[in-house]
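Table S4 entry, Sortilin N-terminal domain-containing protein.
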Amino acid sequence: MKKWFLAGVGLLSILVGCSEAGNEVEGFSHIHGLEYAHNEDAFYIATHHGLIKHTQGKWINVNNEKEQHDFMGFTIIDEDTMLSSGHPSHASDLEDPLGLMKSTDSGETWEPISLYTEVDFHLLHANKGDTNQIYAIDAYHSHFYHSEDGGYNWEQVETEGLPEPIGQTYSLTSHPQFSSHVLAGTEEGVYLSLDSGRTWEEMESESTATALESLNGETEELIGYFVGELEGLYYSTDFGQTWESLDFTLENDMISYISQNPDQENEIILGSMQEAIYHTNDLGDSWSKLAENGNINQ
């Protein structure tokens, strides 16, 4: 079995001091999540020191110092609602780890709603067809979790066939019409579950997906970034049964996050392990680099 030592890529980051909410920033530290907003032409980056919002060409610090958490497993549910996990800001009274947190004001303030002090979700995926169906992987204890009510209650799933340690799974996504169908990218390859993560079978052994993204709630379209026999960004119309190259490959880096603009289906952003952000508005025919090594390109 081929192994991919992804940690060897390294993380080049700019350590940015805390800044006031609403101020523009020139850089960021660690991309822990990257998603388009649902109510405006903007996207959010979950970082080591809070959320950053990109809108109208500006990069804005979202949080005050108390809310500048080390956000992990970040996802946007609807126009105002976000979910995340991670570790509290040094100015916060919250304990570590944060469990699952919820924001109902577009990321400005956060409140733990479940598994507080118990889990640190490094992967958090809400199904595009039914956002009450959420899958998560706890890096704290290396467990797989499933919620059917938007994250208020969870089942710790006993998995069979998903390579261990589970906490080192690289990517997760689920089928928009069949939420029990889940894909996972692991060091051993790509795996499929048809029963909400209980049992898994290997789909691809010579490549692994470092990022997976279901494109909408109405089709089986996927985008994934692969290393191995498949190399680079790929597109699927059948939930990963077959893949077509989008001719986008990085050297000495790899994509960790993919997000599609819900209002512009050809607009996609990518976030890399080495703190780069790439953007396309023509489904990959052309790309621009918005940030590199945590530095924002002007």
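The two ends are 43 Å apart (CA to CA).
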